[in-house]
Amino acid sequence: MKIPKCLEILITEGFIDEVIHPLKSGKEADVYVVQSEGELRCAKVYKEANKRSFHTQALYQEGRKVKNSRQARAMKKKSEYGRKQQEEVWQNTEVDALYRLAGAGVRVPKPYNFIEGILLMELIADEHGSAAPRLNDMEMSSEQANEYHAILIKEVVRMLCAGMVHGDLSEFNILVDSQGPVIIDLPQAVDAAANNNAAAMLDRDVNNLAAYFGKFSPELLSTTYGKEIWQLYQSGHLSPEIKLTGYFKGSNKQADVKSIMHEIDAAREEALQRKYEQMNEPL
Q1: What was the pLDDT predicted at 263?
Q2: Rounded Cα gap, residues 158 and 152, in angstroms
Q3: Are 28 and 54 in contact (CB under 8 A)?
Q4: Distance between CA 275 and CA 249 in Å, rounded?
Q5: pLDDT tens-digit map of 26-40
Q6: What residues are paired with 1 via a beta bridge?
Q7: Which of 52, 270, 53 is nearest to 170 (CA)?
């Protein structure tokens, strides 16, 4: 295929040998399948801030480290230099998170390089070598739903033990290969100790998982893993090997199944609309 202008620098610098085909055109980034060092990989090209759909960045920026006081002042004033620096921090967050989480044993795509706003990383593939499906595109039994939910709760725990919260975890940013779920899309990840919104974000991430898998296994709808995990984290007792109950002591939570199913249907409609936009969005 014709080499997209945004990827020309990676060809010139020898980081990739060939652009195979576009994989995804989203609101946050465009992703291409490329040939690099004898294997298929992904090249994720971040879009400019004014072209992205993620409008609640302020909640995620709290606690993020900046290079120096000049950068911090510029970002606060929202000058042209400040916006450029803010964009750099936003993009670097995903790169740093991938390295940090991979080192902690979390199943995320392996990062290789980050050049001029382009992240070169592992292609998560199915057993046939094609790009792995997203979780939201799968149908599953109650048993499989319980299995995947348990795996992902453990991944959430590993992430928090590494000091991070995904912040936007749902069935739309989880891939499934032959070994199970792989978590993707981490530019909004937050430092659990530095962001005051981390507890609420963790609870939302976990509730998103319960709402999705609860469609196949309704008993998951009444679980309260998020609050249980955060309490253990705050008390210093959280570890990757911890055995969770799924219920937070003192919680009187009752599963509002009708409301949750309504949210699932709304999310499905949003996903279909997003796919339609992606199919008709020029590369």
Answers
A1: 61
A2: 10
A3: yes
A4: 40
A5: 778 899 999 999 999
A6: none
A7: 270
| C-alpha to C-alpha distance for 187 and 129, rounded to whole angstroms | 26
Q: Which helix (H) or strand (E) holds 182?
A: strand 180-183
pLDDT tens, position by position, 69-112: 554 454 455 555 545 555 666 678 889 999 999 999 999 999 99
Q: Confidence class of residue 243 from pLDDT cuts 50, 70 and 90?
A: very high
Angstrom CA distances, 236 to 193, 223, 230, 232, 233, stand at 12, 22, 10, 6, 5
Angstrom distances, CA of residue 69 to CA of 73, 82, 91: 6, 11, 19
Long-range contacts, stretch 16-25, CB < 8 angstroms, 24+ apart: 16/41, 16/43, 16/120, 19/43, 22/283, 23/131, 24/278, 25/278, 25/281, 25/283
Q: Which of 136, 218, 215 is nearest to 173 (CA)?
A: 136
Amino acid at 233: Y
When the pLDDT of each residue in the chain is averaged and rounded to a whole number, the result is 84
Which domains does the chain show, CATH number per domain? 135-278 (1.10.510.10)
Residue 238: phi and psi, rounded to 5, are -80, 135
Describe the strand order of the beta sheet including 111-115 as a list of residue ranges.
18-25, 29-36, 39-46, 118-122, 111-115
SS3 254: coil
pLDDT higher than threshold 50 for residue 66: no
pLDDT band per the 50, 70, 90 thresholds, residue 279: low
3-state DSSP: the chain helix, strand, coil percent, rounded to 5?
A: 45, 15, 35
More confident residue, 264 or 154: 154
pLDDT band of 54, cuts 50, 70, 90? very low
Collapsing DSSP to helix, strand or coil, 18 comes out as strand
